[in-house]
Amino acid sequence: MTEGARVDTAELMELLSVSLGVYYGEFTAAAASENLTASQGKALTVLRRGPAAMRALAETMTCDASNITGIIDRLEKRGLVRREAGTSDRRVKNVILTPEGERVADAIRARMRTTRAGLDSLDTEDRDRLRTLLERVFLTGPAV
């Protein structure tokens, strides 16, 4: 591409698709190494940010609330999460990582060597720019 030429949206979408394919393939393999499905691994890594109500977790993971119940049931049986009643509404169930769940979530991320190596290769300026662009496109961009 010549300098100053505009990359078209279709090309950007294809690069994003390939990038996400690499990321999710690596994530799925890392979760499997901990005997988890990709959805179970995703729940753990989302919960690594902090406790979440079951409904909020389902929304974040873009899945039906009934599916999240099954995912959390299996994680709870393995001792990776626990449920607690909400403080303001006891009908609300918050999901919290156990120390073992934190360890497994961290292990999944640590096994994502290709993704980590790619991001680690960016200098500070490129990291800041990537963060800004990702936030603009996916978090604060125009509504679809």
UniProtKB/TrEMBL annotation:
SMART domains associated with the record: HTH_MARR
Pfam family, one: MarR
PROSITE patterns in the cross-refs: HTH_MARR_1, HTH_MARR_2
Source organism, top-level taxon: Bacteria
Domain annotation HTH marR-type: ranges: 9-139
Family matches, as Gene3D superfamilies: Winged helix-like DNA-binding domain superfamily/Winged helix DNA-binding domain
InterPro entries: HTH_MarR-typ (IPR000835), MarR/SlyA-like (IPR039422), Tscrpt_reg_MarR-type_CS (IPR023187), WH-like_DNA-bd_sf (IPR036388), WH_DNA-bd_sf (IPR036390)
Keywords assigned: DNA-binding, Transcription, Transcription regulation
Protein name (database record): MarR family transcriptional regulator
Lineage: Bacteria, Bacillati, Actinomycetota, Actinomycetes, Kitasatosporales
